[in-house]
């Protein structure tokens, strides 16, 4: 069927390639520029095979059936590895990759994560013309698929290494810190929440989540997190500063001034606390 694919590629794209002259991958360029040795009989035979495959798959899947297969037969080789160009590798890869392309059926491929440092995906194939049905089906399954893939990954990890709840919480916190640096504040909130669920007696986790809440305008949640952090660590100056900011945005100016002044008690040289307390005092007292 490679013959047929090359024939259709040339027929469909030759005019565009000749006019635009795009930079093509060497493998594709060689296919396009090589002298075709395909006869009309070869093409008709391939069309007959495609029609047979389409009829067979349509009969198997009917209106609401889905064929689920691995996207490729083997673990993927490294980028630039010689085996990518080997006839054996391409033959095994195309044995699954070409089912949809040859039959004209629709296919969706979903990445599931990694296995032994190699990407893993699964493909869904539906009857010819069932594109909308397949997209809706995969969309409804996607969350469940990801959850199952995560569970499988976590199960394997748990067999290889035992991580304490405190270590897991710290890992979640570090992910939250990274997300915060990248200004992905909602994502950061999720990671800090995960850390709190694992280890709820850390003032830092609550204070960090409060910082992320401030960035998205969730001032009540930020105030509550700071209050919890202060209960756990009454000398956590960042929590006083952040609670003061949250209270100022909520219009609780007296309480905000108290927070900034207490931050000054803990750290007399803190310019932010001094300037904000002075500004609020002049306006609201």
From TrEMBL:
Enumerate the transmembrane spans.
Answer: none
Q: Which Gene3D superfamilies match?
A: Amidase signature (AS) domain (3.90.1300.10), Tetratricopeptide repeat domain (1.25.40.10)
Q: Which organism is it from?
A: Cannabis sativa
Question: TPR repeats: which residues?
Answer: 237-270
Q: Does the keyword Phosphoprotein apply?
A: no
What does the entry list under GO cellular component?
chloroplast outer membrane
Q: Does the keyword Amino-acid biosynthesis apply?
A: no
Xref: PROSITE patterns: TPR
User: Which UniProt keywords are listed?
Assistant: TPR repeat
Name under which the protein is recorded = Uncharacterized protein
């Amino acid at each position: 069927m490679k013959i047929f694919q090359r024939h259709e590629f040339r027929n469909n794209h030759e005019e565009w390639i000749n006019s635009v002259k795009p930079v093509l991958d060497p493998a594709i360029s060689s296919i396009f520029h090589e002298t075709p040795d395909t006869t009309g009989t070869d093409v008709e035979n391939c069309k007959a095979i495609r029609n047979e495959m389409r009829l067979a798959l349509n009969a198997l899947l009917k209106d609401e059936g889905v064929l689920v297969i691995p996207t490729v037969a083997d673990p993927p080789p490294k980028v630039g590895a010689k085996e990518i160009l080997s006839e054996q590798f391409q033959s095994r890869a195309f044995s699954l990759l070409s089912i949809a392309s040859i039959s004209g059926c629709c296919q969706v491929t979903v990445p599931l994560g990694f296995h032994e440092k190699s990407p893993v995906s699964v493909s869904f194939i539906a009857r010819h013309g069932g594109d909308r049905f397949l997209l809706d089906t995969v969309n409804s399954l996607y969350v469940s698929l990801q959850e199952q893939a995560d569970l499988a990954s976590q199960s394997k990890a748990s067999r290889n290494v035992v991580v304490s709840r405190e270590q897991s919480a710290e890992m979640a916190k570090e992910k939250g810190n990274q997300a915060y640096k990248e200004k992905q504040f909602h994502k950061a909130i999720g990671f800090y929440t995960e850390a709190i669920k694992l280890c709820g007696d850390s003032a830092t986790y609550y204070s960090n989540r409060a910082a992320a809440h401030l960035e998205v305008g969730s001032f009540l949640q930020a105030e509550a997190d700071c209050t919890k952090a202060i209960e756990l660590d009454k000398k956590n100056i960042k929590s006083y500063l952040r609670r003061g900011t949250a209270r100022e945005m909520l219009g609780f100016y007296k309480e905000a001034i108290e927070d900034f002044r207490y931050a000054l008690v803990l750290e007399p040289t803190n310019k932010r606390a001094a300037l904000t307390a002075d500004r609020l005092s002049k306006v609201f007292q």
